[in-house]
Amino acid sequence: MPSKSSNVGRTSWIFYAYQFLISIIVLFLLYQTAFKNDRIAYVDSSKVLNEFKGSEKAKKDFQTKAKAWQANIDTMTNEVKASIGNYEKTLAGMSAKEQSMAKELIRSKQKQMSDYQQAIQDNARQEDAKLTQTVVTQINSFLTRYGKKHNYKMILIANQSGTIAYAREGLDITDEVVKELNDEYTEGSK
């Protein structure tokens, strides 16, 4: 007849075996729920920026403004050149006071032109930054919606500086993102 202590030893061994088995099952289930459905992908930021229709429109809008600014600069440049030409033609017949006033007028126009060019350059930088930020905000907002819709845990951004050195084939979702982004943009523009 088995002793009581051997039954107790066997019972505790079975108890520990069950605990170990339950622990393994719990760990397996945690792994399945926590890691199996994790989807990670990346997009090529330069490709998204270059192929996004909203980006193309922002570039066209900026170019339209830049052409108007350049036309104003060209007009001012022509005025300065005309003033210099007129001054050179009439220099011989001018008194010293008239020459001084004409030189001052030319300097004033040159300064106005220089100040205007500087203001235009500053304005162009600000406008470019504003348009770029608007486009980037649209893309980031879309990527958030896209990631939630397609159950991604993370969408990384790849750029020219090489933030992603290697990625397994199939993780680049740039083409799908660009297509859906443009579809959404086109529908929103209607």
- Distinct helical segment count: 5
Q: How many domains, as an integer? A: 2
How many beta-strand runs?
A: 2
Report the order of strands and helices: HEHHHEH
Write the layout of secondary structure elements.
Blueprint (H helix, E strand, L loop, with lengths): L3 H33 L3 E5 H7 L1 H38 L5 H54 L4 E5 L15 H16 L1
Helix pairs in contact: 2-5, 3-4
Would you write up a description of this structure?
- The structure is a single chain.
- With 190 residues, the protein is mainly alpha-helical.
- The chain folds into two domains: 1-37; 38-189, Skp domain (Protein Binding, DinI Protein, Chain A, 2-Layer Sandwich), CATH 3.30.910.20.
- It is 78% helix and 5% strand.
- The protein has five helices and two strands; from the N terminus they run αβαααβα.
- It has helices at 4-36, 45-51, 53-90, 96-149, 174-189, and strands at residues 40-44, 154-158.
- The chain has a two-stranded parallel sheet.
- The N and C termini lie far apart (89 Å).
Name a few traits of the molecule.
mainly alpha; 2 strands; 2 domains; Protein Binding, DinI Protein, Chain A; two-stranded parallel sheet; 5% strand; 190 residues
Please outline what is shown here.
The chain contains five helices and two strands. The chain is mainly alpha-helical and 190 residues long.
